[in-house]
Design goal:
The chain has 168 residues and is mostly beta strands. It is built from 1 helix and 11 strands, in the order ββαβββββββββ.
Length: 168
Amino acid sequence: MEAGGGLRSATILCAAFIFVAVPLVPAQTGNASPDSSPYRRKVVIDPGSLSGLWETSNGHGGFVGIHIMLGTSVAPDAKTDGRTLNGVEQQWEYLNLGMYEQKGAELSVGEENYFSDSAGAAAVMIEDGHLVLHLVPPVAGMLAVDLDLRKKENDCWVGHFHRGNFDE
């Protein structure tokens, strides 16, 4: 990365290990609460491709990464093969995002922040493979967070990752 307004290097988060966390939540009735996801009830074609853990080197012996957990629901009368949800329509319920910078051999307390796609000052937004999050700390001592990533075909997220002192 060059100082003084030169070219910025793009942070590329590649799937080092994919952990598919697609918990099933029973379908809920009634209107969504004001704090629910704006994507709630949207049909999700491939929920496993959104859930997982992506990380890259922070350049100082550690890692920066994102951990995305997408919760979906299926209709109570959905027919499955008894083992998987292949071919079953799934609907978006919520998305949780962990953003972290691991400085040592293991993730320590304070190295990860969690966000969701429900209404709020720092809601996660995702549209057509474009993941965005912006948090201006409301109080002193909190970390500023900016995330502007696009998912590429090779299962990598490419773009800007800013959490605390890490900004690439």
